[in-house]
Amino acid sequence: VVDDDTLLSIPRLVDFLGCHDDKSYSIFGEMYGYKAYHTNGYLYPTGGAGIVFSKGAIDSIVNSKITCPSHDYPDDMFIGNIARLLRLQLVHSSLFHQDQPI
Question: What is the C-alpha to C-alpha distance for residues 46 and 6, in angstroms, rounded to an integer?
Fold first, then answer.
């Protein structure tokens, strides 16, 4: 999943994903935190950097029947909340970024 202004390198993405188990229940991207150090806090993949879902993660989300609370709810934060509820693995990588690389 990418925004309309996201730059994507398919060869680099294929190389990155080749290092991960395609049967995992994982979501890959640049992770941010919402109240990450609080009891109800969670990490979420920022949409501007792009998000990759494993097939297992997609299956879990679809089969959960979880619905979005509202049409204007922040989609990336909702994905993080779903990951927390379904215990999906969030994998942070600095190869996903939504600003100039350091």
Answer: 12
Any bridge partners for residue 91, and if so which? 28
Query: pLDDT digits over 8-17, tens only?
Result: 889 999 999 9
Q: Is 86 helix (H, G, I), strand (E, B) or coil?
A: helix
Residue type, 62: V
Distances, alpha carbon 37 to alpha carbons 20, 48, 74, 98, in Å: 28, 23, 20, 23
CA 58/CA 56 separation, integer angstroms: 5
Give the tens place of pLDDT for each residue, 39-84.
778 889 998 889 999 999 999 999 998 998 899 999 999 999 999 9
* CA dist., res. 23 & res. 20, Å (int): 9
Q: Enter the pTM of the model.
A: 0.85
- 22-57 burial: b if 16+ Cβ within 10 Å, else e: eeebbbbbbbbebeeeeeeebbbbbbbbbbbbbebb
